[in-house]
């Protein structure tokens, strides 16, 4: 299958070069630099890319299926994780909380966007966007906050983390992009917006590499592997088949499955630190999942990419 091989080669080159560059920079530059890069992407870069890609996205048809599938995937992952937790009598609550979050919330933004844009035409980017913003983002700082507060010991109030949803510039950019997506712009402005959006995608990969270079803990491997098996294998496989039975096939199905199969989000580490959950488990799941994604992507393309 030369087309599949070419797709994977191009994707791995993009992911590998971006993350590797970030890894090297993360080892050489002051540790505060990734913080500044993350803030720039959060407040400026990602909102620009959302606004730009929305102008190319096709939002017709049954795009509402994407956020609905996101919530089903999140709740299914949490349910399967909870069933496993009930069998582990020795796990303390902070470990249970990190395990639940790792099985629920994926990196559908910084990692899911470039993967989707590399493997599926830009007009289907709206499906990834709806999945991430209406599904993952709200779940991470909504249901995720509730669970973190329930299982953790942190002193940070729920309202402080809920505020991150209300002031999230990505959500505001999403709304503005929907309203203005058909507004004609000068050719130069349109081209500048397009290239800026792709530059943000590349910078997000660099940031992932920089953050991974600073992860020093690889403990809790067995627990992390189980949560990743739920998050990155069982849930996308089962729901991907369900989508086929419901008549959702082609690029929309592939986008949803890829978003479901993303490794744990950095938000899981943020919540683990804020609420004193099992940080070692959160770090290990994040790192191992990011590496494991290279193995699982060909599986989803073979099963749902036809």
Which helices and strands, and how do they pair?
Blueprint: H1 2-28, H2 33-54, H3 65-85, H4 93-104, H5 112-119, H6 125-140, H7 143-151, H8 158-166, H9 169-180, H10 187-213, H11 221-245, H12 250-260, H13 266-274, H14 279-304
Outline:
This protein has 306 residues and is mainly α. Helix content is 76%, strand content 0%.
Description of the molecule:
The structure is a single chain. The chain is mostly helical and 306 residues long. It has one domain. Helices cover 76% and strands 0% of the residues. It has 14 helices and no strands. The mean pLDDT is 88.
Order of helices and strands: HHHHHHHHHHHHHH
The major beta sheet can be summarized as: none
Task: Compute the number of helices.
Answer: 14
Strand % is under 5%
How many domains? The number is 1
Please bin the fraction of helical residues. Answer: over 70%
Radius of gyration: 18 Å
Distance between the termini: 11 Å
Low-confidence stretches: none
Class from secondary-structure proportions? mainly alpha
Mean pLDDT: 88
Shape: globular
- Tell me the number of strands: 0
């Amino acid at each position: 299958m030369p087309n599949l091989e070419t797709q994977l080669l191009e994707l791995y080159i993009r992911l590998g070069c971006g993350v590797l560059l970030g890894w090297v920079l993360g080892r050489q530059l002051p540790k505060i630099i990734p913080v500044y890069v993350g803030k720039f992407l959060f407040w400026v870069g990602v909102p620009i890319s959302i606004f730009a890609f929305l102008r190319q996205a096709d939002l017709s048809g049954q795009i509402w299926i994407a956020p609905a599938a996101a919530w089903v995937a999140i709740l299914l992952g949490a349910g399967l994780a909870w069933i496993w937790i009930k069998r582990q009598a020795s796990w303390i609550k902070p470990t249970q909380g990190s395990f639940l979050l790792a099985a629920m919330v994926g990196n559908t933004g910084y990692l899911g966007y470039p993967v989707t844009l590399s493997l599926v035409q830009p007009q289907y980017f709206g499906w990834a966007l709806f999945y991430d913003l209406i599904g993952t983002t709200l779940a991470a700082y909504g249901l995720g906050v509730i669970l973190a507060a329930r299982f953790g010991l942190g002193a940070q109030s729920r309202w402080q983390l809920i505020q991150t949803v209300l002031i999230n510039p990505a959500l505001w950019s999403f709304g503005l992009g929907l309203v203005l997506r058909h507004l004609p712009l000068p050719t130069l402005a349109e081209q500048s917006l397009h290239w800026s959006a792709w530059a943000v995608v590349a910078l997000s990969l660099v940031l992932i590499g920089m953050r991974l270079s600073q992860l020093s803990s690889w403990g809790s491997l067995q627990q992390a592997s189980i949560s990743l098996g739920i998050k990155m294998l069982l849930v996308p496989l089962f729901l991907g088949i369900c989508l086929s039975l419901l008549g959702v096939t082609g690029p929309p199905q592939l986008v949803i499955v890829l978003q479901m199969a993303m490794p744990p989000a950095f938000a899981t580490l943020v919540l683990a630190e804020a609420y004193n959950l099992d940080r070692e488990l959160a770090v290990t799941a994040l790192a191992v999942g990011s590496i494991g994604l290279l193995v699982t992507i060909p599986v989803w393309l073979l099963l749902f990419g036809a």
